[in-house]
Amino acid sequence: MPKIIDTEHTGFFRDPADGTVYRVRHNRRRTARYAEALLPAHPGIRTDYRGQAPLHTLTPDDEFGPVSLLRFLAAQAPHRECLFCRRPVEDPPSVTFGIGPDCAARHLEVPAKVLRALHTRLDPPPDGGQPTPRAVHRGHLRLVAAYGRLIDAA
Known about the structure:
alpha+beta; 5 helices; 34% helix; globular
């Protein structure tokens, strides 16, 4: 497998050796790239700077698509801030997926209305109270699976 050698390739990658998920991005001046590891934190995800070392082992085949990324993020829900811009998230779809509506459209090319539609598919609890954390987790995974089917059908 060829290594990532171009200076423009950014995105989310999973290292096949240890399963770590990395976000590869440009520095502010766009003169170099660096990697941040996405680590589970409760609630949400925290990032850990890893520099350029992971760039030598990641390949284009390790890149996450939008569906894989949303699956990963939904498994870490609930989120308090957007993964891309770090602004606080409050609306339910953003809390579920950890991405604000503007960033979903800009970075993942997923319209905000699609995230809202997927989120409305969550089943309310039968007694009208708050769902259990396990039910919420299952609901998030169902939403991401539905989104994957939506993308595959397009």
